[in-house]
Each structure stands twice: as C-alpha cells, then as structure tokens.
Amino acid sequence: MAKRQNNSNRYKALIEKIFFDLYEADSPELFFDRTELESAAAALSIDLPKNLGDVVYSVRYRTAMPESILATQPEGMEWIIEGAGRARYVFKLVKINRIVPNRELVTIKIPDATPEIVSAHALSDEQALLAKVRYNRLIDIFLGLATYSLQNHLRTTVRGIGQIEIDEIYVGIDRHGRQYVIPVQAKGGNDQLSVVQTKQDIACCAEKYPTLVCRTVSAQFMSEDLIAIFELGLEDDEIKVVDEKHYRLVPADEILPEDLVRYGYRN
After folding, report:
1. How far apart are CA 248 and CA 25, in angstroms?
2. Owning domain of residue 18
3. Total of domains in the chain
4. Contact 255, 247 (CB under 8 A)
5. Closest CA to 231 of 219, 220, 217, 221
6. What digits encode the pLDDT tens for the residues 46-83?
7. pTM of the full structure
8. From CA 194, how far away is CA 260, in angstroms rounded?
C-alpha cells in the first residue's frame, strides 16, 4: 500500500508538471508525447517506473488528477487523458469521466456458478471479476444475448489513439441472427471505470469488427459478491449510461420464493 501511495505521489507530480508546461486558459485540449514524462522526471529529480504507461494509467483509473489541475476545470467539466496516437496523449475537457455505481439500485440475486478453485486462485480483483462474469454468464443475462468469450486482454493499436488493451472481448448473437462484438471493461479494488477506455473500445471495434454491432459493457466490484454492470454508449462524443444492473452472486438456496415472485413483476 505504501509503495502504491508513493507511486501515486510521483505520478501526480509528473502529470502536474506536464500539464502546466502546456496549459493555456480556455484551451480544451493539451497534447503531449510519452518522452515528456522523461523530461519532467529529470526536471523534478523523480525516478521513472520501467513502464511509463503506468503513469498515465494511474491517473486514468486509480487516482484523481492533482488538485492544481482540478482547480482549472470549468464548472461541469473535467480533465481526462486520452490516447492520441502512438506514444502520444492529450489532456481533454469532457463533461463526465468516472462511471460510478448507483447505490440506490435494486439488487438481483444470481446462483453463483463460479468454480471454487477459480475463486481461490484468482491473482487479482480484475481477474476474479472477469472470471465471475464469465462463469455466471452475466453478459448473456444482462444483454439478453447468447455470448461467447473471444479473447482476454486483447492488446492492439487503433488509428488516432495508439496502443490499447481490452480486458475481455465477447461475440454474441440474438434471436434474429444479428451478431455483436462486446468489449468488456472490468475494474476491481480501488480502480475506477473511465470513459477513456470505453471510447477506445468503441473505436477499436469499429475498426476491427466493422460488420458487428458494438455494445460496450463495464463491470465493477461493489463488494466481493456484488457486481455492477453497465452498458455504455457514445452520444454526441460523450459516453452515456444506457443501462445499469446490480447482480449479487449467492448460493442457490439463498434465492427465496419471494425473490422469484418479485422478479416476476419486473420488465
């Protein structure tokens, strides 16, 4: 935990320097190259991590932007960092960044089909979450499709963005024969869902799977057995929540007759 905290402080200092070296009031986009992380580290006498991309990843998903950067945000807007090509990024002002579960939403109980040996040996929250989503067919249940896992941790490049990684990608089919590609973003622990990855996933599917309908899904652990799942969509260049459901994985005998009656009244 202390190591992560130290990394967070170092990374924020680097991001802060790069931002204010570029910042001009009223500018909605500030472009920078990965090499500028090295220049900033030298100027601040900060040791760089071996994986330079972890600096940007941390601010995207684990921690908030430095307070000094947040102070420059116009009301109702916030800064994110997007890919802008190979080893190139852009600070960009958008209306929404983090996707946060609605704590007031009702919970749906699902019989837990996760093999215990898988739960026992998952090496990370993200890995455990992807496994639970897969073994419990939560993508099928959530979208109402027959879906199949195509690949985990797909690393590829996208024109105008650069290298990206999709946590898991599914393909699916509906009762009319329409075929779908479903990129899944999964976050556990302290990591947060972000519109940045969703935009990248949509761009990737448009480029790599142009004949398939793209439906983007994000999953977040709310607790060990409670999973929030979102369908997100792009509207006017902004990511919007299309649907959200919360699934609690439980032993089958914990799903009571009154639960089933209650579910029967829902559309």
Report:
1. 46
2. 2-95
3. 2
4. no
5. 217
6. 887 777 878 887 887 777 789 999 999 988 888 888 88
7. 0.79
8. 34
